[in-house]
Amino acid sequence: MTHLADFNTKNKYKATVKKTERLTPNDTEEIREISLEVKQTGFECMVDQSFGVLVKSSDDFGNKFHHRLYSVADLPSEEGGKPLVKLLVKRCSYVDEFSGELYPGVASNYLCDRKIGDEITITGPFDLPFVVPEDKNSNLILIGLGTGIAPFRAFVKNIYKNVKNWKGKIRLFYGARSGLELLYMNDKNGDLTNYYDEATFEAFHALSPRPHWSDPIALDVAIEARAAEIMEMLSQSNTRIYVAGYGKIRDVLDKAFSNIMGSKEKWETRKAELIAGKKWAEIIY
């Protein structure tokens, strides 16, 4: 497993906040889409890459900076010859396991508090495990939770705008606590709905049955509802599964796929085949 400390932060770039927009309503968890303009030329972050954000923050271990990675949330572009990148960030907090105190997440709160014109330091780019297969007949099962939709938004747009003539099935499963938090798949931010008329693309969402009670997102229910099609896709050697989300997603997916395949043992065997063939990739936050 790769840790943040393993990523080289020597390549640093200055970026200016060009736009910051809250995508979720005020009475829900805050998720923002932030557009950055990189001041220096030479920075190129593609849809299969991420970049880091460096925040000055001392800790008990003597570290002077906090480093956090973010996936590119849209196709890269330029303005006046300067690179533009977008990211999704959720304002987070955590409970100290020893003191029980609640602390704000360093990078997420820093980014959510930035205003237009503010300057930040970014690093990278760094490769993501989500690559577009050379074989356009490949089937893709994309599964994201929360801000895990970011890399798949860019991924899907890249396939249908740049790769084109895609023949394989693309099935996107996206989980959020409520319909108000379905990023890029709602009335206000329906970016991914632009591809609903593509013959090879379908998207499905999963919500929490009681979001105000923090019930888990019913991602397994949404996936198992497509059991017949998923079973057919898993029977083919050119199917890949890409996953982005929180740590709990692993157990949820193992349960759902085990039910689809008929047993835990059958799924473990198929998953091992996918991993060995580099057809299973995940980013776990």
Description of the molecule:
The chain is α/β, with parallel strands linked by helices and 285 residues long. The protein has two domains: 4-126, Elongation Factor Tu (Ef-tu), domain 3 (Beta Barrel); 139-284, Nucleotide-binding domain of ferredoxin-NADP reductase (FNR) module (Rossmann fold), CATH 3.40.50. The protein has six helices and 14 strands. The strands form three sheets. The protein has a seven-stranded antiparallel beta sheet. β3 and β4 form a beta hairpin. α5 crosses α6.
Write the layout of secondary structure elements.
Elements: E1 12-22, E2 31-38, E3 49-56, E4 65-71, E5 77-79, E6 82-90, E7 93-95, E8 102-104, H1 106-112, E9 119-127, E10 139-145, H2 149-163, E11 170-176, E12 201-207, H3 219-224, H4 227-234, E13 239-245, H5 249-261, H6 264-276, E14 280-284
Parallel strand pairs: 10-11, 10-13, 11-12, 13-14
Antiparallel strand pairs: 1-2, 1-9, 2-6, 3-4, 3-9, 5-6, 7-8
Averaging pLDDT over every residue, what do you get?
A: 84
Number of strands: 14
Architecture of the largest domain in CATH? Answer: 3-Layer(aba) Sandwich
Name the shape in a single word.
Answer: globular
**How would you spell out the order of helices and strands?**
EEEEEEEEHEEHEEHHEHHE
- The value of Rg in angstroms is 19 Å
Q: List low-pLDDT spans.
A: 209-213
